[in-house]
Amino acid sequence: MLGSMHNGIARNGRLIVGVVFPDMTTFHAYMVHHGVTQMIDPPDAVVSDARDVNPSGEIVGFFMDSANKTHGFLLRKGEFTTIDFPGEDVVSTQARGINPQGDIVGFYVSKDALGKFHTHGFVATRNKDEDDDEDK
User: Fold this and answer.
1) What span, in angstroms and rounded, lies between the C-alpha atoms of 101 and 122?
2) Which of residues 108 and 130 earns the better pLDDT score?
3) What does the alpha-carbon distance between residue 130 and residue 116 come to, in Å, rounded to a whole number?
4) How far apart are CA 30 and CA 134, in angstroms?
5) Residue among 8, 80, 96, 83 at smallest CA distance from 40
6) In this structure, which long-range contacts are made by residues 67-75, counting pairs with CB atoms below 8 Å and at least 24 apart in sequence?
7) Model pTM?
8) To the nearest 5 percent, what fractions of the chain are helix, strand and coil?
9) Which backbone phi and psi does 125 adopt, to 5 degrees?
10) pLDDT in tens, 73-115
11) Which residues pair with residue 108 across a beta bridge?
């Protein structure tokens, strides 16, 4: 294995997330939960990177699919949700951080009509009403 990097840790220290580099061109998201390491590649991921975790154990990061497009992800209660900033001009989205309330920060890249790339930040706030509906 070439290397690895821890990117986030939950407050209690029992859950760590990061990325492992088995070779010079490949990387995969992982988590260490109570000392046990587990790969957490989202479905359809060719490469992936876990960037942050909140106290509830929700993990965010990004992955590249087989079409070479980069998407953000949220792993919550064992379920992956893909995060793509809306817009026809958006070519890449990365989720980079998550707070205790579940709000996600990251960036996306758009391509204008002249082919120039532009990087923008975003904040995605959790819809509390949807979370309340899930618990019923």
Assistant:
1) 16
2) 108
3) 37
4) 27
5) 80
6) 70/94, 71/42, 72/104, 72/106, 73/42, 73/48, 74/98, 74/104, 75/40, 75/42, 75/50
7) 0.90
8) 5, 60, 35
9) -95, 145
10) 999 999 999 999 999 999 999 999 999 999 999 999 999 999 9
11) 93, 120
| Beta-ladder partners of 29 | 19
Characterize the bridge pairing of strands 3-9 and 15-23.
Answer: antiparallel
* CB crowding 23-36: b at 16 or more within 10 Å, else e: eeeebbbbbeeeee
Quickly tell me which residue has 């000392």 as its tokens.
35
- The DSSP 8-state label assigned to residue 57 in this structure reads -
